[in-house]
Design goal:
- By secondary structure, the chain is an alpha/beta fold.
- It has one domain: 3-Layer(aba) Sandwich (Rossmann fold).
- The protein has 10 helices and 6 strands.
- Helix 4 crosses helix 5 and helix 5 packs parallel to helix 7.
- It binds zinc ion (ZN) (2 copies).
- One zinc ion (ZN) binds next to helix 2.
């Protein structure tokens, strides 16, 4: 047994790790955050989907195809993908991470995002990952940017640099919660500004955020980057509203 394993077993004996969702004690020496029963309740988004916004079609045998919403409203990003559905224990974990500063929940979400098999996505095509920025006022309130934590885990896993200097939030916006699609688009319009256009021009970027709801925030970030000269922008989130 290597020393690190020994230390981990000692620590597990004194401070047993518990399942994030049901608080049962987890088996020692394993890196999981959820027990097997709770893990089974997570919906991984690996079925047929819309190749642009990533909405899944669980009961469709038609394979990947453009959804009605993407046909009507084109996006500024090439595609958006998410690892898991925003529901149940995942919704709870995201709330605990963002609003309760629960770093264990953050580590669990970062792991789900980084370890997910995004079939057909070539990470080497991106020059940098860009976390969706928070306004300085929100950052002071929350003390961390949840998207940066997720981007760092995803970037480390796939060998892509994270650059949080390229995009900033220039306007404080009220929460998007409770707004419909057109209200969200209006609320977020003009909220971001591009920095270092010399680094953006001609580049390919992957935006990273915690949740894809209507795509309004990611779309506005992508628009800002494309207007600053980015060649290609895509987006990835830990979870997605279905
Ligand atoms: Zn559990
Ligand atoms: Zn779509």
């Amino acid at each position: 047994m290597i020393f690190r394993e020994f230390l981990s077993q000692i620590s597990d004996a004194f401070f047993p790790r518990i399942c994030l969702a049901c608080s049962c004690v987890l088996p020692t020496g394993r890196p999981e955050f959820f027990c097997a029963d709770c893990f089974c309740r997570i919906t991984f988004l690996d079925g047929s989907l819309c190749p642009v916004c990533g909405v899944t079609f669980p009961d469709s045998s038609a394979g990947n195809h453009l959804c009605g919403s993407c046909m009507e409203h084109p996006h500024w990003f090439d595609f958006a993908r998410a690892a898991v559905a925003y529901e149940g224990i995942i919704l709870d974990a995201i709330h605990r991470f963002k609003y309760g500063r629960d770093l264990t929940a953050g580590a669990a979400l970062a792991g789900l995002l980084a370890d997910f098999d995004f079939a057909g996505i070539d990470f080497s095509a991106f020059d940098a990952m860009i976390p969706v920025p928070l306004h300085i006022r929100r950052l002071r309130e929350r003390r961390f940017n949840q998207s940066l934590v997720l981007a760092r885990a995803l970037g480390k896993k796939h060998g892509v640099a994270v650059d949080f200097s390229l995009l900033k939030r220039r306007r404080f916006t009220l929460t998007q919660t409770g707004l419909n699609k057109s209200q969200r688009d209006k609320n977020i319009s003009g909220a971001f500004a591009a920095n270092h256009p010399d680094k953006i021009r001609g580049g390919s970027f992957l935006l990273v955020d915690d949740v894809y709801t209507t795509g309004a925030t990611l779309n506005e970030c992508a628009k800002t980057l494309v207007e600053a000269g980015a060649k290609r922008v895509a987006a990835m989130t830990a979870a997605r509203v279905l």
